[in-house]
Every structure is written in C-alpha cells, then in structure tokens.
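Dear all,

This email documents one entry for the complex benchmark we are building for the journal club exercise. For each entry we list the sequence lines for every component of the assembly. Then comes the predicted three-dimensional structure of the complex as a token string, followed by one or two observations. Please use this as the template for your own entries, and keep the labels exactly as they appear.
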Amino acid sequence: MSTYDARFRIWRGDADGGELTDYTVEVHDGEVVLDVVHRLQATQTPDLAVRWNCKAGKCGSCSAEINGRPRLLCMTRMSVFARDEVITVTPMRAFPVVRDLVTDVSFNYAKALEIPAFVPPAELGPGEYRMRQEDVERSQEFRKCIECFLCQDTCHVVRDHEENKEAFAGPRFLMRIAELDMHPLDAAEAAGTDRRRTAQEEHGLGYCNITKCCTEVCPESIRITDNALIPLKERVVDRKYDPLVWLGNTIRRRKT
Amino acid sequence: MTHVEREQWDVVVVGAGGAGLRAAIEARRAGARTAVICKSLFGKAHTVMAEGGIAASMANVHPQDDWKTHFRDTMRGGKFLNQWRMAELHAQEAPERVWELETWGALFDRTPDGRISQRNFGGHEYPRLAHVGDRTGLELLRTLQQKTVGLQQEDHRETGDHEGRLKVFQEFTVTRVLKDADGKVAGVFCYERETGRFLVLEAPAVVLATGGIGKSFKVTSNSWEYTGDGHALALLAGAPLVNMEFVQFHPTGMVWPPSVKGILVTESVRGDGGVLRNSDGRRFMFDYVPDVFKDKYAETEEEGDRWYEDPDHNRRPPELLPRDEVARAINSEVKAGRGSPHGGVFLDVSTRMPADAIRRRLPSMYHQFKELADVDITAEAMEVGPTCHYVMGGVAVDSETAATVGVPGLFAAGEVAGGMHGSNRLGGNSLSDLLVFGRRAGLHAARYAMSGAGGGAVTARVEAADVEAAAAEALAPFAGPDGHAPENPYTLHQELQQTMNDLVGIIRREGEMAEALDRIAALRARARRISVEGHRQFNPGWHLALDLRNMLLVGECVARAALERTESRGGHTREDYPGMDRAWRPVNLLCRTSDGGGIALERTLTKPIRSDLLALFEREELAKYLAEEELGSEEPGSEELGS
C-alpha cells in the first residue's frame, strides 16, 4: 500500500465569515475525500464540521464543492487528483453556511412542503394496484434521487440569484412534480390538482432554460433535464396552447 | 442554573428511519400531537442503505406463500430463540404494511401481471421480497418521508400550521429519557447539533426508534448514527435489553480498498444467482450446510442452478443459507488460506447473468464497485467478507404494544427493539419489522399518551433536577480533564471499535471476551477525562464524546452476554462451545445497569411456544431445537404438517 501527503485547502468559518485554511494530511490507497476529512478531524482539527452518514453514496449527506465542482465527498476518490495538486473543499455555495462545510439546506425542505403529495386513486384499495413495469420505470428513475441537493446547488437560477429562490422550486422538486405527474395511478387531477399548471405557475418551471447543469452533477446519474424537466415543459406547453392536445392526453392517460 | 427551553407534545419519537417515521405517522393518525427527533437531516436515516427488499408473504410470485411459511422461515432463521408472538404478528401483518406503502406513492418493481414483484433471499422458502432494484430502503424511507409531508400538508389546510400536529426536529440528539417522580416517562432531553442549544420535549410517551450499534465495531456496514443511542437511553431509564450477544455479521461486505471495507454488498446478488468461490475456484458453501438445514438445500451445483428456474422440483443453493451460516463459512475459508488477495472470498455474478441484466437488477452494486473499487462486476468477481451489520438484541418489548419493560410510557421499535429475530435475522425481515412494529409502537404510544383522566393526556412532570443533571452531563466534555491528561474522543472510539472487532467479533472465545470487558472498563474510565476543543456549534468532536457513552454501554452488554452464553447459535459463535445447546433455547439474557455503573445480567425463561404455532412444524425438526419437555407429550398427529 502506498501513502503520501496531500495538500488541502478547506473553508473554515460560520455565518459571520471565514477563510480557506491549509492542511497537509496523509492519504492511503483507495481513499475518498471524506476519508481525508475524517483523518483531519481525528488528528488535527477535531471540530471541523461536515455532514455525512452512509459513506457509500446512498444518503446524499456529504455534499460540498471540491475545486469548485459540486460533489459528494464520499464518492470522490483521491486518485482522480494529481498527488501534488492542492485540493480545495468549500461548502455548497447556493445555501447559507452554518459552519465549515455544513450549510443550511432548509430551502429544500420548505420547497418539499409545497409540492402536493401523491393522491391515491379512490376506487382502488391496498393490494389492488396494478401497474406495468414499463409504466413505473419513468417515475422510478426520479425516485433514485438521494436528495443530496447538488442539483439545487449548481442550478444557476438560484446559485447566483438569491431573489429567485422564492419562486423557483429547483430541479429536485420540479423532478418530483414530473415523477408524480408520470405516476400511472396518481389521482391528483381527479382531486382538483393540476400538477403541470402548478409546475409552471407556482414552482417556477419557466425559469429553467435547460442548460443541464443539474444532470451533470447528479451522483445518481438521473437524466433530470432530458427525462423530467423537458417532458414536463412539453406537457405544460400542450396544455397551455392546445386544448385539443390536452383533452386527447387526458383521455389517453385514463387509468385502466 | 442552565436555561433550557421546553415544548409540550403527546408522543415523542426518537429516530426518523423507517420505524420512527412509521410510528410517527400512526401516532399522528391516532390523534396524538407527535414530534420526531433525528440526528441527521430528515430523509438520511440508515434505512436508505437497505438494499434487497421487504419480506412479506403477498404470494404474488409463488402462490403457495402465506404467513405461516414466513413465520416458519423466521423462526428457523432465528434458531427458535425468537419472541414467537412477534414473529407471528410480523408474518401476518407484513403484506398489509407493504400494500399500504403503495397507497402512499411507493413504486415497487412489478410482476408481468402488474403486481408487486418479489425476489428470492436467504432463508426464505419462496420469492418473498418486495423490492425496487437494489435500493428498496431508499424507496421505503422516501415514501414514509413523503407521507409525513403529506400529513403536514393536510394539517396546514385545516389549521394553517404545517407542524402543529407532526413536527420533525432534524439534527437534534437525545441524551436522556426523563421520568417523573413516579417513574413514568415525562419527556426527553436533547441538544440541537447546529447550535448546541438544549431543548426539553415534554411528553408522556416516547418511542425509541434509533436503529443499531454497528459503530462500536471497526468493520461495519452501518453509518455514524448507529451508536446504540436508543439501547443506552433505555438502559439508563431503567428498561432492560435482551439478547445482546446476537450480532449479525453480514457475509458480504466490501473488503478492498481499505477505506470502503465493510460497505454492504446486497444479498440480492446471491438471490439473483451470484455464487461464492474460494481461491481454488470451488463453490465452498456446499461444504457448510449444517444438519438442521440438510434436507432443504441442494447437494450439487447442478441442482442448485436448476432451482432458479424450477424451485418446486429442486432445492435452493447453499449460498442462500441464513446469513450467520454464510458468514462463518467465509470466515473459515479465509482462515484456511483459501481466501482472495485482500482477505475475502469471491462473489461472482459476471458468469451467471448477462451484463445488461446485472446493471438492471443490481444498479447500485454496479455503481458502487465501479466508483469505489474500479471493479466491473459484469466482467469480474467481487471480493467480499463479513461485516458487522445488525444487532438482533435490543430493548425488551411487549410483542403486541412495543412497550418496554418497567418504564411506563417508553416504547421501542425497529432494530433498537429485541426479540423478533431471535438469534439471527433473515434478510428482508428488517424492513418488514420496522413497518409492522413501527406502526404498533406509534399506535400504542398514542393510546397510552391519551389515556389520562377523562380521556385527556397522561400527566407527567419533568423534574427540574433531572434537566440540570442532563445539561451538566452534556457539557462535561468541555470542562477538561481535571488535572489528568486529556483524552481524545476519536482515539477512544477507534480503540473501542478495535476491541469489539478483535475480541467480541464473529468467532468468540472466553478469554478474549473477558479481556474485552477489562478494556471497556478502562475505556469508560478514560472517557470521563475526554476534553473537546471549540464550542457547541456543530462540533463533531463533542457529538462523538457524547455518543461514546452509549457505545461503551452497548459494547459491555454485548461482551457480557456473549461471555455468559456457553453455546453457539445464530449471531453468537463460541469457538469453545461450538454446538447449539437445546437447554439454552428458552433462555433470555437481560442486561440492566448496575449500581456500580456497569452492566448486570439476569437470566429469564421465554414463554412456551403456543401449540398451534408448534404444530406448523414437523416434530422431527422441532426436536433439533427444543428440549424434550418443551415438545410436550402430545403427538402433533400423523397427518402431514408444515412444509
């Protein structure tokens, strides 16, 4: 096994301000950036604040920016960097800092509360749901989301425009609307909720100009733009400009 | 005098994983104002790491499956030590709990006729696990999270307040369950991780749903949250733990590179056809089928392979034995010098399925090995070895209500509760357990909380002195070591993990466990001299210092109970007592805190298994597990019984 000393610059501070601090730290074969952060905590700076849970890319807790790129600390291997490279780790930029690498992500939880939940079909009881695999697959792709909020962090609509946050749910929650809209048995429409209209009018779908930044940073490789946002936009357009297409779609989508 | 804010709730749920959220949903639906407290962000709980599926005998894939078969499999997997009424309720209620998730928006993989698909798993006679690829836990947790949000939206429509009836306190840690002068639950003491401020939630009912203890071990599939908090909170409140010697080492964790050692490789790899081989290329599991399972597993590779296509006329391959058996076998192969280059064995699915099928059925395994180990599982074998995964032991509970023993108002569900899985848990039974008993705990906690005079809430007053003491305990690590050399919490944690791994691990010996107890006592003394730097705002060193109290308590419980039980059964293997002893079958070991601050053991006997449940098995099989007197004199009859 080979070992070397890596140079890190890590942002330290809180809501009142902070600065990049230099560290030199030992690195072993096969390690990821989170291992190195943990070694720093154990040996040099025990109060370095970082969120993490599973360390296996499944929970989406350890989101931060490495050399300016939004990434999971646990899925970024040290081997992708040159040994003499200085590795800079900063908190997600789109959210207010709490301390060090920990940010206040409550924006995302507030947005989640605004998306109406799944509406079960009134006529079907538990155990009576029948759906075909190919019909659930579209929504299943979006349900792979681990809510790391890297897409929310990178999206330029809010990254540099704090003022857009109120009107814009962000890729993660627009994708949630698409997921529910594509759910074969969601009965929101029958219950009076028009998911496509609300996507456009209440959750800021129109702000998205499909630059695909969200898709690029997604650690689950979900094709957020192509499979969720663009189809959702198309459905909205159908509805907005062509009542006949809307009617046809509605009839075609009738649940069996 | 420390100023501590107080809030009043009917039910407080500690933990927002599957069991905690399911309990909270039920308590809120039963009319109780419910608060959920979790150490991480909402939606990050360890449940998301469950991969394989939820066991429930819906009979969507094999029409003969029913709750009785599921019950039998569960009892066999647990080597008949299970709290049998829990195993019965679990098997009966699991299908309803899964179907209910669909009505809350869950999207499971489907059968060709549109129902929920079910997959094979170790120890389950029929394909039984509802699943979504290999990310079932994420689907379950997200569904419960979204149902919680849905209830909050309902409340908002009715009252204008999202959080009045159901509120999640995220990134809060509970350090004490508080009781009133009569010994009833009165609330919890916690701190907010982000700010370090203290908070008391007053409530007559508290549900512990904190998960497991894996972080006491060095090699584990568990996340940092698994520090045995609920186990310790129960102990310190006076409620005993049961079966703590039974710790499940999952047979297949990653072994290389070192930084990912222990990360789980789902059992679905074997359920879908993956095989285990040693360095000679031999499918060694055929050499490790124990007597109690001899007639249920294939004797040749050919028969095992045929089973995947024709399960009615062939027996299953021994790679699908319960986890304890497979973990011990891997351990033996490595010890005998037939391991893989990095000290594991080979798990191969690349020669068994086409590459695109592997990517479709096991997407996160493909991703995990590709990203973290540079291994393409569609083209080469994985290297795997045992990893500490689950604790069967836990807070002793009433089977029907999930109430703990001796502390009115305290409930426990999910991994933190003991009994359900006996000495070894079957894969897939954890997600069903947390749904079935999470719901029961929430329901009965709400009923208890509302059972006060005139149908109102039970009154229980938090004692000011207890709040003071809890605050002082939480602040102690900042006080410094009082003249001694200061101890570093990270160092103590690593030493505890090494101790548990080396001395109370998968194979146990009397001398080593005694040594572990000595080391734990020394660590406990050193832990009193922990000194942490910085302040109370999001300070991981301080958080770890407080979690260490729990890990040390739990570590002692495991070691003490393991030293006492002089037999091998399920997740407890003694090199010096290699056989299963029928005399130990009905014996439970209860752990309580002793006056000296350590752990005291008490032996109790389990209730005899109800005769109609015994009748589900053949007498010949029962005789392998139960003592003569437990079998009773009555012959179950000559007709075909059971499987």
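Observations: The CA atoms of residues 246 and 526 of chain B lie 27 Å apart. The mean pLDDT of chain B is 94.
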